[in-house]
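Agenda item 2: nicotinamide-adenine-dinucleotide complex prediction
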Amino acid sequence: MNVSVFGLGYVGTVSAGCFAADGHQVIGVDVHPDKVAAINEGRSPVVEPGLPELLRSAVSGGRLRATTDPAAAVRDSEVSLVCVGTPSRRNGSLDLTHLERVCEQIGAALRDRSAYHVVVIRSTVLPGTTHQVVIPTLERCSGKRYGEGFGVSVNPEFLREGSALKDFQKPPLTLVGHNHAADASGTIALYQSIDAPLFSTSVRVAEMMKYTSNAWHALKVCFANEIGNVCKEVGIDSHEVMDIFCRDEKLNLSSYYLKPGFAFGGSCLPKDVRALQYRARELDVDTPVLRAILPSNALQIQRALDAVLETGRKRVGMLGFSFKAHTDDLRESPLVILAEALLGKGISLRIYDKNVSVSRLVGANKDYIERQIPHLSSLLCDSIAETIEPSDVVIVGNQAPEFVEPVQRCRSDQIIVDLVRLPLSGAALAADYRGLCW
Ligand SMILES: NC(=O)c1ccc[n+]([C@@H]2O[C@H](COP(=O)([O-])OP(=O)(O)OC[C@H]3O[C@@H](n4cnc5c(N)ncnc54)[C@H](O)[C@@H]3O)[C@@H](O)[C@H]2O)c1
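Presented output:
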């Protein structure tokens, strides 16, 4: 393909060099003449292992050149990659000056072009930026309509400086956010020789996915460092701990526990986070990430409470009571905390949980129920129907499979507050459905 790459910094130069090496015809664009001159001389404007050799070969092979003229670059390409910087302002907000400027330049260059042109956003931009800034700017400056004269896709970059060439050739995934098939195919064609799973999604999901990844990476670093700091104070080799920790690919390094939903609870996680934090405090080791866990969890319970109270209805049925499906363990169940908060707000509550109903009669939790939460015990119903029928609001508190069918059949005058994303068929729902964080 004929590709123009706007912004010859780390991302732009690596992308330009690698796409040229993959056989595409690439024109780099930058506002700095010295960066442009460097590329044209086969030198790298940024320090990155392997990049000088790659650029030299691409330039001498005639597959890569650079210019300061955006109009010429757009004229000679079918696809423009936007790789300009999106730095932080002092208040933490994103500075979109470069992005806006480059969209104005590409837009102006598109004014006289009849061929459909795809603008690919490689820069990291917050959700909404493409629709609120990129597309309107391109439309205003080109005089063309999005989806007719030009297309836009969001194709975040996942490379790490220092291993950028390897990351480019073998990224964890290729992500293309788009609203029109032509924009996707124009972008995907660039990646034909890249060995990575391809995810085609909406513009907004692609924008958010990049921030989710980077926030996760940052959280991993700080989490590991805090564990390391505690380990050092108690004379434990943190690397040995984390080496073994990382071998658990079932719960630790896996998709488990990574689906947005309700708060955690039970007899282990709250107690153990609390104890570790207490120990760190005793050791005078500050652990702000670990300290934030329980308050964050409490906020999720508050969020569920607000979601129910916002309905303004008074008769509420709660499906699920123990801290997760398939157990009767009520210790530190966030649903117990939610139930108590609802009662405190004058809500008339009915609760159903198959496992708790059984343990109420015979199980190990009988004593807990009778002694700790007798006021809630009397609210337990014997069937799902008894809980749902008289309720205006139905809270889905866990993923018990027996909830799916009755919740699916909720009436149009009822509101479902789903804390766990029960697998329901949205199209067939008569009730007003509200997800906790989706
Ligand atoms: N650096 C990384 O490892 C990395 C990884 C993934 C994503 N990103 C994201 O990619 C984007 C670019 O990052 P970077 O580190 O390559 O930035 P950078 O600051 O190194 O490079 C940006 C380049 O854009 C040029 N530029 C500014 N306005 C221009 C215009 N109107 N026309 C042409 N060129 C223009 C600048 O002169 C500069 O050379 C950012 O949004 C960043 O968050 C960076």
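Discussion summary: Residues 350 and 378 are 9 Å apart (CA to CA).
Owner for follow-up: CH.
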